[in-house]
Amino acid sequence: MVSVLTSSALFKALLFLSLCSVWLLPDLALAKHAGITRHYKFNIKMQNVTRLCQTKSIVTVNGQFPGPRIIAREGDRLLIKVVNHVQYNVTIHWHGIRQLRSGWADGPAYVTQCPIQTGQSYVYNFTITGQRGTLFWHAHISWLRATLYGPIVILPKRHASYPFPQPFKEFPIVFGEWWKADTETIINQAMATGGAPNISDAFTINGLPGPSYNCSAKETFKLKVKPGKTYLLRLVNAALNDELFFRVANHTLTVVEADAVYVKPFKTDIVLITPGQTTNVLLKAKSKTPNAKFAMSARPYATGPATFDNTTTIGILEYKKSASASSSNNMNIPLLKAKLPQFNDSTYAMKFNQKIRSLATRKFPVKVPKKVDRRFFFTVGLGILPCSKNQTCQGPNNIRPAAGINNVSFVQPNTALLQAHFFNRSKGVYTTNFPTNPPFKFNYTGTPPKNIMLDSGTKLVSLNYNTSVELVMQDTSILGAESHPLHLHGFNFFVLAQGIGNFDPKRDPAKFNLVDPAERNTVGVPSGGWVAIRFLADNPGVWFMHCHLEVHTSWGLKMAWVVNDGKGPKQKLMPPPADLPKC
Length: 583
Description:
Layout: H1 7-33, E1 37-51, E2 54-61, E3 70-73, E4 77-84, E5 92-95, E6 121-127, E7 133-139, E8 149-155, E9 169-178, H2 183-193, E10 202-205, E11 222-225, E12 230-237, E13 243-248, E14 253-258, E15 261-268, E16 270-273, E17 278-284, E18 293-301, E19 313-319, E20 335-336, H3 346-354, E21 374-386, E22 399-405, E23 408-410, H4 417-422, E24 455-457, E25 460-463, E26 467-475, E27 484-488, E28 493-500, E29 518-520, E30 522-525, E31 529-537, E32 541-547, H5 550-554, E33 558-563
Keywords: Apoplast, Copper, Glycoprotein, Lignin degradation, Metal-binding, Oxidoreductase, Repeat, Secreted, Signal
Family: Belongs to the multicopper oxidase family.
Main location: secreted
């Protein structure tokens, strides 16, 4: 049957099409600047890898160690299908990605999702909004991130430039930590016996330990540069339990970005980077080819009382020789060493962190909340807990080391907090009575109180949408003062100030920088000191906050913020995807 349009119907159809074209024009204009969708597939599989003369089977993505680099542009959407082929439950966290209204893709196990079980898969679906720079992805369950990690490179939008000289080339420099033994066995044994887990055997640069370790000379990362050229090094600390000092012998670095936020450029010989942090630096190669190779060295900044892996990983910076230069004498070129600070140089650490300031330009403004709706004071540190009745602990009186915030050691639930929140099924899963202040005052950085027993529970803070939060985090000297790198999921925060000793609520706020504070997702709470931050709770969902020293996370140094939906349609958490894993 053929239908014939009347003249009036034809007119209406043409009018509709013309209106449609007018409505579509802005969308088409937007589409030019909108991102594209990028697809990745992560097959989680076991792979034999040899380091330090020993071969072991490790958990990898696609058989690669470290894992594959994810490259995207600001505004792009990412669809990353993770398929679990190993015996362990797995989740992946996209560290530092804001996950605006897409908390289901954030990744921490039992916080935003149940883990992906053996033989199952899950598609992480999120858009990179208003961010550009270096971040990274890692497993977020147990200690699997020891080998499951890789860099995320977010390029600026097309035709947008860096606010610093365009580098000749860019390289990721990802620091890791290597154990000869199986890391899952290590943490499981430690949790079962109430002892401290064994320390690592080596640090790595892009998966390679380097020449300072036995039988590792061939397993050395080499960076080849051309004289006079400028290189962008994208530094990532993916180590489990150690903050690191990093230096390139006889070269000065210019810091231009921290945690995927541009900073006021400053020159430094040494970079301090905690687990969970990323730092972009420019390295300008010497104008003429020197008759030397240069060590790129990293070793721990360690302030706590516990033993630590006091070794150094070394990569090598080499200058490319011209074709006419003889390669026969390449073996005889000396390797110049990089001198690093003392392992406990907290003064250097403080000075370095205070140099990091936001650009605060018209193009890259600082949106630090000027008014504060809610103030919190969190003590961060160690303590003790009784061992469970069916457990025999190494400690006296059947106690074990633990860690907590405001005296609460977090108990991981057996279902995901975000699902419980979204479906209003929080009863029996979590409570929202996390303490705003410590339960009692004491000299936090002085003589510890007699009772150092922690409370435990799955306690959260509930925030209304768009609440501006000021949080002071105070280290304690219980079981020894220690620097704690605290990571907040779902947000960037502004680092207003930091200091040594106990925070003084009367005097210290006068030191707050509200003009150009560093904007980060991970900050070191200074050893025996405090740090003050602010953030705007403009992202509905459940957001994990924890120490990025994995041993402390295992011991309970973690909590979560529930940000409730706002009133507008774009202020509400999206519903869960159909393939969200079940517990």
